[in-house]
């Protein structure tokens, strides 16, 4: 399990408001490393229930959420 998968490639801009206060959204059981990131509010953790199309990023300014396209 690699640390970098929990963080978006910086800088990430919110497509709605253009703000860069964007956090990666994580799911699943947090590892000690991820737990540390959660406590530092570097990621937004949503727990173990992953929706069919989970958002990967969440804007902390306008609360817009979106799914970063990995392919296509
Ligand atoms: Zn925003």
Structure characterization notes:
This protein is an alpha+beta fold and 72 residues long. The chain has one domain. It is 11% helix and 18% strand. The chain has one helix at 32-39, and strands spanning 22-26, 43-45, 57-59, 65-66. It has a four-stranded mixed β-sheet. The relative contact order is 0.27. Residues 14, 16-17, 19, 59, 61-62, 64 line the site of zinc ion (ZN). The site of zinc ion has 8 residues, from loops.
In one word, what is the shape? globular
Major pleated sheet: 4 strands, mixed
Distance between the termini: 25 Å
Mean pLDDT: 84
The helical percent reads 10-25%
Query: Strand content of the residues, in percent?
Result: 15-25%
Order of helices and strands: EHEEE
* Structural class by sheet pairing and helices: alpha+beta
Physical arrangement of strands within the biggest beta sheet: 2-1-3-4
Task: Please work out how many helical segments DSSP would assign.
Answer: 1
In this entry the ligands are: zinc ion
Count of all domains? 1
Number of strands: 4
What Rg, in angstroms, do the CA atoms define? 12 Å
Low-confidence stretches: none
Task: Give the topology.
Blueprint: E1 22-26, H1 32-39, E2 43-45, E3 57-59, E4 65-66
Parallel strand pairs: 1-2
Antiparallel strand pairs: 1-3, 3-4
The site of zinc ion has 8 residues, from loops.
Short description:
The chain has 72 residues and is an alpha+beta fold.
Observed structural traits:
72 residues; alpha+beta; 4-stranded mixed β-sheet; 18% strand; globular; binds zinc ion
């Amino acid at each position: 399990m690699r640390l970098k998968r929990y963080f978006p490639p910086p800088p990430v801009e919110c497509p709605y408001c253009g703000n860069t206060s964007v956090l990666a959204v994580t799911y699943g059981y947090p590892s000690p490393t991820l737990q540390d990131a959660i406590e530092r509010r570097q990621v937004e953790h949503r727990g173990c229930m992953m929706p069919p199309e989970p958002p990967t990023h969440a804007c902390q300014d306008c609360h817009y959420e979106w799914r970063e396209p990995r392919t296509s």
